[in-house]
Design a protein that fits this description.
single chain, 204 residues, mainly alpha, 8 helices, 0% strand
């Protein structure tokens, strides 16, 4: 991690090894950046919409890398994107004000319910606060239907990670799935929803 990143987290939070060794963190950042840039470049978004999504791409790539290597989603990257999400997506036609803010309320309610149930049953939370914060970010930028689709994609992407052998205090990093689902819907929401509808219709 960079020195300025380490200053934003507690020392004990850096004691947990990630799924990928820390020495590969910058390589993971580069690969994530290239992947997200490709998704954005080939999307049907307007040039203006692509431009306002550039901060999302750059910070989200680092979010993936840090979570893979340190099991952390850093506030210094999530909070600026949440703040931008209060205005930019709605103003530039990515979603509506009502959809964004209602979705945020649903995420917060879901978070409180799940954390409460987990606390009662296991004595600890099973999902990190960073994951919930990123879901709030997703709600702001995608709105209601987009959020549900992105979470579904994130679940599918994260599922194989549960079967990777892990040692000690290594848990499944959710950021890769969440970020990928987020950008997939941000860039290709109509195509994905049409595909899911066709699959659902074919099954029935």
């Amino acid at each position: 991690m960079f020195a300025f990143e380490r200053k934003t987290v507690l020392k004990e939070e850096l004691n947990f090894p990630g799924l990928i060794p820390e020495k590969y963190i910058h390589l993971m950042s580069l690969l994530s950046l290239l992947g997200l840039m490709s998704m954005l470049f080939f999307s049907n978004l307007t040039d203006v919409q692509k431009l306002i999504c550039l901060p999302l791409v750059m910070l989200s790539a680092r979010i993936i890398a840090v979570d893979l290597c340190h099991q952390l989603i850093l506030n210094i990257y999530v909070f600026p994107l949440i703040i931008l999400g209060l205005i930019l997506p709605q103003y530039f036609g990515l979603t509506t004000w009502a959809s964004s803010y209602i979705s945020v309320g649903c995420v917060i309610l879901f978070m409180l319910c799940v954390m409460g149930l987990q606390k009662l049953s296991t004595g600890k939370a099973g999902v990190g606060m960073g994951d919930y914060k990123f879901m709030i970010l997703m709600a702001l930028w995608l709105g209601g239907s987009g959020l549900l689709t992105a979470v579904f994609i994130a679940f599918l992407i994260s599922l194989p990670l549960f079967f990777i052998p892990k040692k000690g205090e290594v848990f499944v990093p959710m950021a890769p799935g969440l970020v990928t689902g987020f950008f997939a819907v941000l860039c290709y929401q109509n195509q994905i929803e049409n595909l899911l509808l066709k699959l659902f219709t074919a099954i029935h």
